[in-house]
Design a protein that fits this description.
Layout (H helix, E strand, L loop, with lengths): L3 E5 L3 H13 L3 E2 L9 H8 L3 E5 L10 H9 L4 E6 L4 H9 L4 E4 L4 H12 L4 E2 L1 H12 L5 H11 L2 H11 L4 H8 L3 H15 L4 H10 L2 H5 L21
Parallel strand pairs: 1-2, 1-3, 3-4, 4-5, 5-6
Helix pairs in contact: 2-3, 4-6, 8-10, 8-11, 9-10
Pfam family, one: GerE
Protein name: Response regulator transcription factor
Organism: Streptomyces tropicalis
């Protein structure tokens, strides 16, 4: 029996080709393409059994936000992510968001169909070699954590390093802004740049990566930022 599914991807040609191939194999395809910004709305409104959701950059911040929303509003929909060869962290982020599987864009149609059937049955749909890579990194996080920590540290500006340390300390945007003497919008921009440079999708992932690689130890303590000095007439005025 065919599966009622959707193929949602920014690349219309890829989406339509995959949809056509799946129709020929007896599946009912509800839609073939949509921009990333509208993917969740489209899936929520049509409520398929399985959604094949394309992403070009699984490491980008917010890449799996549509998955989170779909699973929150339509938990019965199984989402299988279509994407490039991911890092193990990319696979982990997809599943953490609620995806039922991850399939490479260059997978054969038979492999895509197997993933669809597994997802509909409630099973994890991911190629064994990708799963082995993810488990391998979890079991052996880094052969040379110091080298990786140094490499990551060199990617960040001194201000971004301070932002990362504050993120690892659990500070939210407001506290980061206050501690660094910058506007909250500027602090938010710094955080997004740090996530992008580290190739992670959340503050929690950034903190875990920094701790695992020894980056926090290399960064050192936060700089001391004294408040405004008191004037001759008494204590310094507080913020307005």
């Amino acid at each position: 029996m065919g599966v009622r599914l959707m193929v949602v991807d920014d690349h219309r040609l890829l989406a339509e080709a995959l949809a056509s191939a799946l129709k020929l194999r007896g599946h009912r395809v509800l839609a073939a393409a949509a921009p990333a910004a509208g993917a969740a709305d489209l899936v929520i409104s049509r409520a398929p059994e399985v959604c094949l959701l394309g992403t070009a950059a699984p490491a980008e911040p917010g890449a799996f936000d549509p998955v989170l929303r779909i699973k929150r509003e339509r938990p019965q929909v199984a989402v299988v992510v279509l994407g490039p060869v991911p890092s193990p962290r990319g696979i982990a982020a997809a599943f953490a968001a609620g995806a039922s599987g991850y399939v490479r864009h260059d997978e054969r149609i038979e492999g895509v169909e197997r993933a669809i059937m597994k997802a509909r049955a409630g099973e994890a749909a991911v190629a064994p070699q990708l799963l082995q890579g993810a488990f391998g990194e979890l079991l052996n996080p880094a052969a040379q954590p110091d080298d990786e920590g140094r490499r990551l540290l060199e990617m960040l500006t001194p201000r971004e390093v301070e932002v990362l340390v504050r993120v690892a300390d659990g500070e939210d945007t407001r506290l980061i802004a206050a501690g660094m003497g910058i506007a909250p919008s500027t602090a938010r921009t710094h955080v997004q740049r740090v996530l992008m440079k580290l190739g992670v999708g959340s503050r929690l992932e950034a903190a875990a990566l920094a701790a695992r690689t020894g980056l926090l130890d290399r960064a050192g303590p936060l700089p001391h930022r004294p408040g405004p000095a008191a004037g001759p007439g008494g204590p310094a005025a507080g913020p307005e």
